[in-house]
UniProtKB/TrEMBL annotation:
Isopenicillin N synthase-like Fe(2+) 2OG dioxygenase domain boundaries: 6-66
Lineage: Eukaryota, Metazoa, Ecdysozoa, Nematoda, Chromadorea
Transmembrane segments: none
Protein's UniProt name: Isopenicillin N synthase-like Fe(2+) 2OG dioxygenase domain-containing protein
Organism for this UniProt entry: Acrobeloides nanus
Entry-linked InterPro entries: IPNS-like_FE2OG_OXY, IPNS-like_sf, Iron_ascorbate_oxido_reductase
Length: 109
């Protein structure tokens, strides 16, 4: 692990930003909205941002995004439902989900 301070910040439930400090020999896995839908919010997507490190420091981050089959149905996994619990999200194809998400962003990324 290097001496560069963390550049990754996550937002807590109060809306405050806090640094996600690096942990030696570990990965930081940021879950997305689809995994939250599959798990009925048992695992939640993390609101996050990256801040620039000081000029004298360098940082290398590698992002890996998984793109699903557009026809795959995103639905709550039965194992993520408690007794008498119903899914929080309606079943939707991945293509419909991405289209709806892009429409909500209104062209803003």
């Amino acid at each position: 692990m290097d001496d560069c301070p963390s550049a990754l910040q996550i937002q807590n439930s109060k809306g405050e930003w806090t640094y996600a400090d690096p942990v030696k020999d570990a990965f930081f896995v940021n879950l997305g909205d689809v995994l939250a839908m599959w798990t009925n919010d048992k695992w939640k997507a993390t609101v996050h941002r990256v801040v620039w490190p000081p000029k004298e420091q360098e940082r290398l981050s590698i992002a890996y995004f998984v793109v699903m089959n557009p026809d795959a149905v995103v639905e709550c996994l039965e194992s993520c439902l408690g007794l008498d619990e119903t899914p929080k999200y309606a079943n939707i194809s991945y293509k419909e989900y991405v289209t709806a998400r892009m429409n909500r962003l209104d062209g803003k990324y």
